[in-house]
């Protein structure tokens, strides 16, 4: 689909839970400097795909590579150190730690020195600079999401993976997150894989799309080709 060689390549992925087939020959690619939207209704296999990519679930077959390195044999932490950043659904920040401590954990976990990295990330999310001493648990849902994305960016990922980043977030924060993705895309080094059901958000930030149904890819292409027919058949609830 894409003439640019993908940083993240998933080929022929199959996965099952308790003997039930969940993913069927799933393939996708995420190039550097692009936002790729993985779309579909609830329960079609999007989160399962992410779990296979990040190593939280072992697929029954298929190949996953990051910058040409095979990820299948690697643990989740090894995949993260190679350059997979992951923001799961629900954000998973440390509620009892301050914003500053949450951010520093992103550095410590990857044995990286600050070297101005925190300041660079705070430029993307300036509201967090005012909240460095606040506990993560007192932030709004939108602020927690910004913190989770900022913490993931501090690991210096090659590909950033996000599961439903707009879920339960107020519209102004969604706009801010969208603007951040556009800034990251413009830099050109980072690939972003976005699982999202909010159609307008995907249309505003994504370069290309994949649509899943019943564990398989049923449509893909540049975001401009996401037409009303595909939306009605596979995305409308």
Please describe what this structure looks like.
Helix 3 (99-109) packs parallel to helix 6 (141-153). The protein has nine helices and ten strands. The strands form two sheets. It has a six-stranded mixed β-sheet, sandwiched between helices. It has a four-stranded antiparallel β-sheet with strand order 2-1-4-5, covered by helices on one side. It has a domain at 1-75 and 159-165 and 190-237: 3-Layer(aba) Sandwich (Rossmann fold). The chain is globular. It is of the alpha/beta class.
Q: Which quaternary structure do these chains form?
A: single chain
- State the name of the first-level CATH class of the domain at 1-75 and 159-165 and 190-237: Alpha Beta
- Radius of gyration from the CA trace? 17 Å
Shape by Cα distribution: globular
Order of helices and strands: EEEHEEHEHHHHEHEHEEH
Strand content: 25-35%
Helicity, as a percent range: 25-40%
CATH homologous superfamily identity of the domain at 1-75 and 159-165 and 190-237: P-loop containing nucleotide triphosphate hydrolases
Strand order in space, largest sheet: 6-7-8-3-9-10
* CATH architecture designation of the domain at 1-75 and 159-165 and 190-237: 3-Layer(aba) Sandwich
Main sheet summary: 6 strands, mixed
CATH topology-level name of the domain at 1-75 and 159-165 and 190-237:
Rossmann fold
Low-confidence stretches: none
Number of helices: 9
Query: Averaging pLDDT over every residue, what do you get?
Result: 91
What class, by secondary structure content?
A: alpha/beta
């Amino acid at each position: 689909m894409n003439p640019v060689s993908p940083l993240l390549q998933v080929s022929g992925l199959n996965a099952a839970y308790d003997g039930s087939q969940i993913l069927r020959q799933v393939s996708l690619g995420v190039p550097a400097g692009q936002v790729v939207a993985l779309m579909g209704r609830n329960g079609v296999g999007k989160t399962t795909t992410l779990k296979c990519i990040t190593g939280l679930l072992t697929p029954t077959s298929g190949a996953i590579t990051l910058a040409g390195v095979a990820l299948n044999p690697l643990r989740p932490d090894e995949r993260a150190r190679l350059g997979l950043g992951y923001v799961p659904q629900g954000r998973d920040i440390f509620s009892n730690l301050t914003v500053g401590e949450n951010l520093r954990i992103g550095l410590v976990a990857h044995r990286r020195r600050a070297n101005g990295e925190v300041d660079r990330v705070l430029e993307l999310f300036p509201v967090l600079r005012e909240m460095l001493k606040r506990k993560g648990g007192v932030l709004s849902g939108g602020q927690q999401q910004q913190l989770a994305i900022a913490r993931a960016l501090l690991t210096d990922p090659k590909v950033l993976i996000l599961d439903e980043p707009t879920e339960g977030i107020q519209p102004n924060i969604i706009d801010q997150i969208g603007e951040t993705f556009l800034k990251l895309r413009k830099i050109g080094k980072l690939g972003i894989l976005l699982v999202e059901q909010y159609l307008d958000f995907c249309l505003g930030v994504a370069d290309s799309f994949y649509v899943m149904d019943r564990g398989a890819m049923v449509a893909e292409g540049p975001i401009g080709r996401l037409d009303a027919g595909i939306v009605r058949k596979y995305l409308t609830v």
